[in-house]
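Figure 3 (text version): structure tokens given as input.
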């Protein structure tokens, strides 16, 4: 059966952060993803364990990125802040046995050049990889999209893959978000096929709106089947903004032939 995980950052927001683990489990999910640590890590670990769900993915803290700021990972002058967030995330990921750690996005600040930001990004990636020498999981980088965020630093799957192959092969991997690929106007299956050797996790939401499947124009059943035909056997991560109360948005699970 196809396996799905659910974001407890974007979804179940009708509830306080610590109650979302139980809500996800009640909805049938065995795995969840945390994009933002909205409560104390020890409290989140306790509630996840109490709910009987595993945390599948954690994002490194992104600074002010969520609020529209430049973020951390590729921002000159914020290297220390980024590495502090990496230390925190690694500690949480190891304590909670989280298999995937996403190192996070950033934007190009108005007072910096793209080349300077890329140099900062590469330096921070190298430092994070070195810090993660005892982490048994997988470090991920996720290209976003330039339609929603024209100033995003990593906004192209091909460029991100080329950088990893050139400088971080075997140490850094890709997170493949179907929403971002579609918003960039790229063919999802062709893009996945080009970079399947680097892709370790797949996320999804519909276009337009970034809502649940069925609210937009993406044919998820065909895409999921094609991605699986290329050898993908991991979870598909539901990372969407529910168009109505989260519990009312799961009709797609059965129609997409999966289990939560």
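Below: residues designed for each position.
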């Amino acid at each position: 059966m196809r396996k799905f995980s659910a974001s407890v950052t974007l979804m179940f927001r009708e509830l306080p952060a610590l109650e979302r683990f139980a809500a996800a489990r009640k909805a049938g999910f065995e795995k969840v993803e945390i994009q933002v640590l909205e409560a104390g890590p020890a409290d989140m670990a306790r509630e996840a364990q109490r709910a009987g769900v595993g945390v599948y993915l954690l994002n490194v803290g992104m600074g002010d990125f969520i609020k529209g700021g430049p973020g951390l990972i590729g921002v000159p002058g914020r290297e220390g802040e980024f590495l502090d967030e990496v230390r925190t995330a690694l500690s949480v990921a190891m304590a909670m046995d989280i298999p995937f750690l996403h190192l996070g996005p950033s934007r190009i600040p108005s007072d910096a050049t793209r080349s300077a930001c890329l140099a900062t990004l590469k330096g921070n990636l190298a430092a994070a990889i070195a810090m993660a020498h005892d982490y048994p999981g997988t470090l991920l980088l996720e290209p976003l999209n330039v339609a929603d965020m024209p100033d995003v630093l990593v906004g192209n799957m091909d460029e991100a893959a080329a950088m990893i192959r050139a400088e971080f092969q075997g140490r850094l991997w890709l997170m493949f978000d179907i929403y971002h690929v579609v918003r960039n106007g790229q063919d999802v299956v062709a893009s996945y096929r080009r970079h399947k050797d680097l892709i370790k996790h797949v996320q999804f939401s519909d276009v337009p709106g970034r809502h649940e499947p069925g609210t937009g124009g993406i044919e998820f059943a065909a895409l999921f089947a094609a991605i699986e035909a290329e050898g993908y056997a991991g979870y598909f991560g539901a990372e969407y903004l529910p168009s109505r109360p989260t519990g009312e948005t799961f009709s797609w699970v059965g129609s997409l032939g999966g289990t939560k």
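The chain has a mean pLDDT of 97.
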